[in-house]
Amino acid sequence: MITVRAAVLEESGSPTVIRELSLIDPRAGEVLVRMLASGVCHSDLHTRDGDWDRPTPIVMGHEGAGIVEAVGPGVETPRVGELVALAWLVPCGTCPACRRGMVWLCAASPSYRHSLLDGTTAFRGPDPGERIRSYCAIATMAGASVVPAAAAIPVPAATDPAVAALIGCCVTTGVGAVLETAAVPTGATVAVVGLGGVGLSCVMGAVIAGASRVVAIDRVAAKLDVARSVGATDTILADDDAAATLRALRDLTDGGPDYVFEATGRTDMADLVIAALPIGGTAVLVGMPALGRRASFEVFPFVDGSRRILGSNYGSADPALDFPRYAEWTLDGRLPVHRLIDRRIALDDLEDAFEALRKGAYARQVIDRF
Questions:
Q1: How confident is the model at residue 279 (pLDDT cuts 50, 70, 90)?
Q2: Mean pLDDT on 196-209
Q3: Residue 119 — left, alpha, or beta (φ > 0 → left; ψ -120 to 50 → alpha)?
Q4: Are the C-beta atoms of residues 97 and 171 closer than 8 Å to each other?
Q5: Mind listing the pLDDT tens digit for each residue in 303-335?
Q6: What is the pLDDT of residue 293?
Q7: What confidence score (pLDDT) does residue 166 get?
Q8: Among 149, 241, 349, 352, whose CB has the most other CB atoms within 10 angstroms?
Q9: Are strands 341-346 and 364-369 parallel, antiparallel or unpaired?
Q10: Domain 183-311 CATH assignment equals 1.10.10.10
């Protein structure tokens, strides 16, 4: 066992605490990853604030990258010394979805149990009986983590670890929503509502897809600047008047965009993107709201206009295939992920980062000092 510092949520709705924990040695099918970067994602905030019910105590973080320092028996990939991006949805490999190659639909993933493959936990407290779970089975807000080998995807060594971390969640979620879930065709018009890491990744995905117009919408002017820097053709500064935002979007897109991506996780914004659809238009819901929240829409025009709503989980990704591809795109300049990172922090700054996230202050904050 080794000792690491980790951000632990002791109880939902309470501040995280930084603790010294023991970490088990990797066993069969597991690897030890020394963490180099962890993104601070809205999903972490939902868990910290109690919007989502998760077992506690739990080591936080699900968007990370690091170096493999040890592997358990029988592990052939990844290898010691490789840079890996960590997938927060670990495929079980045997369920019907996994057998069809649709790993993002795996319902038997240990990620949903926040444990290792056999249901045990990687972290231990000073009391030998204290077992601490790993968020999504990877627990990236720690100096190191033991994870299922299938979660650790090798990426080119030249990749910035902070960029690799974002590929592990927000980039794959957003880019994949455009390229895989919606399969946006060349020449389509696209709008993206909400410009955090996921929404900005949707913008980048729309550029790669060859969209003729990409409209980026947010309440924070600085995020509109970032959206333009990654390829948005138009921006709208939203305010409390949703009707005015809707009119501005329709004016820019000749009555409404072909595809609208909702990346805030707010149900009122889900209402807005559905209302924005022209005949034949598609709304793609990417943002994750608090549990129990509902949206609504008028059914007759939705059916009469052959409109569609798609839900997109993890960008319909197969991480083993998509992570290396997205990493290569960052290196050749097609995917300027580095522009999303506007604050690098220490693990001790996590609660401050959560407060900034509540205010929508940054596109993506990354922990790079553990």
A1: very high
A2: 97
A3: left
A4: no
A5: 989 999 999 999 999 999 999 999 999 999 999
A6: 85
A7: 98
A8: 149
A9: parallel
A10: no
Tens of pLDDT, residue by residue over 120-133, are 999 999 887 888 99
Q: What are the sequence ranges of the domains in the chain? A: 2-168+316-369, 183-311
Q: Which structure tokens are listed for 248?
A: 């501005």
Residue 94 dihedral angles phi and psi, to the nearest 5° = -125, -15
How far apart are the C-alpha atoms of 126 and 17, rounded to whole Å?
15
Q: Which two tokens stand for residue 350?
A: 């996590």
- Residue 114: count of CB within 10 angstroms of its CB: 22
Helices 197-209 and 221-229 cross at an angle (nearest 10°) of: 30
d(CA 192, CA 235): 10
- pTM for the model stands at 0.94
As a whole number, mean pLDDT of residues 104-131 equals 91
CATH number attached to the domain at 2-168+316-369: 3.90.180.10
For residue 186, count other CB atoms closer than 10 A to its CB.
8
Q: How far is CA 69 from the centre of its chain?
A: 25
Q: To which residue do tokens 């060594």 refer? A: 157
Tokens of 231: 């390829």
Q: How far apart are CA 297 and CA 319, in angstroms?
A: 34
